[in-house]
Structure formats: C-alpha cells, structure tokens
C-alpha cells in the first residue's frame, strides 16, 4: 500500500514517514500544499495524511482541490486545530478522518489502518484467504498459524492483492502501489516477487491472469485451487 504524507514540519514528516515504512507501507512525502495537489492528482495513493496548517496553500484548500478534481484518495487530516468547527470544515471538504496534534503515533497508525480497511470494504485488520492470514496491524503473515518471513516489498505486494480479493490487478498497478516515488521501478520485478511469494506461502492463492495481471483467489479453507503458472 502506498501513502502520501503532507506535513510542513520536516522532522515530524520524517517521523511519520519512518513509522509508516516500518509498518510495511511505501511512503511519499510533501512539505507544502502545491506539491501535495500535484502528487495527489498524478499518483495513485491508497491514502494520504494531510496537515491542515501548510504554508502557502493550506491543507483545506489542498483537500478541496483534490475533491473538486475527482481525486477520491482517502484522507486523514492532521492538525493542531481542535475546534469542532474546524473538524466540520475538514469533513465537509472531503476528509475521511481527523487526528489532532499532539498525537500518539500508535493512534495515527490505528486510524490509518481503519481508514484503509473501510476504503477496501474490510471489517478486520486480519485479511484471510484459505490458510493464509495477513495481519495489517502487526505486519505479519502466517500460513496455518506458522509465521512466514517476507521482505518489505513481498509484504506490500501480498497486502495489496489481499486488500482486493478476486480483482485482477495489472503489473503496472502493483508497481504504482508498492513502490514509493523515488524507487527505480521495474514491472519485471513483480513477476519475481510473485514467484517468491508462491514459494514462501506454499499454497496457491495467487492466480496469474495471462496478459492482464494477478489476483488473489477467493476460496474457503480447504477449497484452494491447484497449481497456477508463474
């Protein structure tokens, strides 16, 4: 999952970004409003954390421009303002959640997980497919209860697929959602990661849709399909 953090305090921006990266997300950063508008309009983020008190173009204006332009990215507003009318303005402009400064990083991460769950239509932090369980909160994957060690990119790839069960997802879309903006992207590496995931999981829950991409099979435990092409 790929996120955008917009916060004009460089140190706080760095702290939030590092916490998100440690939790398994790909993160892009912006320090001012105009850059945020551009990134939100041109990059396919799964969610954004948006500070209201930005210099120049403030966060409320950024949010309004996104929504007016059809950008539907879920937005968690982060601000030092805690008056009820400020919250109303943010929600009316299209915010999906609101966290006041100062805040605990654990709360920010929990609210973000809930926001991503709601946007994908999930009720729990634990995503399941057959014997495979992906705990978004703990950034942990298990198969039949045994933990499976994944690299950060393997985890992001599996997480994105499992957030969209049954949907065929192209290599291009996967590249856009598991790498941050500065990463040297190569869609050919997706095939490599898929192969590694299949070997590590040991069960066939990732289906290749030839010429289109990949999808997570939607099966009950004990009803997994047979082998698929790598």
Automatic annotation (TrEMBL):
Domain annotation OmpR/PhoB-type: ranges: 124-218
DNA-binding region ranges: 124-218
GO CC field: cytosol; protein-DNA complex
Pfam families: Response_reg, Trans_reg_C
SMART domains hit by this protein: REC, Trans_reg_C
Domain of life: Bacteria
Boundaries of every Response regulatory domain copy: 2-116
GO BP annotations listed: regulation of DNA-templated transcription
Keywords: DNA-binding, Phosphoprotein, Transcription, Transcription regulation, Two-component regulatory system
Any GO MF annotation of the entry: transcription cis-regulatory region binding
InterPro entries given in the database record: CheY-like_superfamily (IPR011006), OmpR/PhoB-type_DNA-bd (IPR001867), Sig_transdc_resp-reg_C-effctor (IPR016032), Sig_transdc_resp-reg_receiver (IPR001789), WalR-like (IPR039420), WH-like_DNA-bd_sf (IPR036388)
Residue(s) carrying 4-aspartylphosphate: 51
PROSITE patterns, per the entry: OMPR_PHOB, RESPONSE_REGULATORY
Protein name per Swiss-Prot or TrEMBL: Two-component system OmpR family response regulator
Organism expressing this protein natively: Camelimonas lactis
